[in-house]
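During the reporting period the student researcher (J.K.) took over the structure-prediction task from the postdoctoral fellow and processed the backlog of single-chain submissions. One of the processed entries is reproduced below for the supervisory committee.
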Amino acid sequence: MHPALLWIQLAASAALILGGARFLTRSSDTIARRTGLGHTFAGMVLLATATSLPELGTGVSAIGLQDSADLAAGAAFGSNLVNILIIGVIDFAHRAGPILGHVPRASLIVAGVGAAVIALASAATFIHHQTSAMATWYVSPLTAALFVLFAISTYAVYRSEGEGAAGEAQDTGGTSPRPWGGRWPCTWLRRWW
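J.K. obtained the following structure tokens:
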């Protein structure tokens, strides 16, 4: 395929993603308000997952079609760098002072765990380059640690926003913004956690 066509495909894909961003943001905001899940939780789980699907597709394609682990890892690590840079870009658009001064405590949890996940992935890359002990394993044990860390952080953000909802309920005379009073909506989920 001609390189110019590849650049056109890339630009068209980027335009579709940018066009869908407004819809995704509005939908996540509506879900957060109507369910009482909290904006940080909805942003972390719903919006971040939806916007990370292109990276997932890129990574799977890089491995499955090109057998290029460096392309897949570069896309994942690179998207993290760009996503953090976005905070700086939106700070310019936020007119009420530094944006990080206006985020709730749950965002601090997400930032800390995000840094831990990047550190763990970096450590895994370093470890796998230093030893061949796990070279024959199908999946790195550090991959399992990434999934566990994500699950724990999701729970921590949910609980953090739940405490905020309970505090709001006390301030508003006992009516919680969450339909279930800041508790788990399903008993099986509560038992699982």
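The committee noted the following: Residues 165 and 182 are 6 Å apart (CA to CA).
J.K. will present the remaining backlog at the next meeting.
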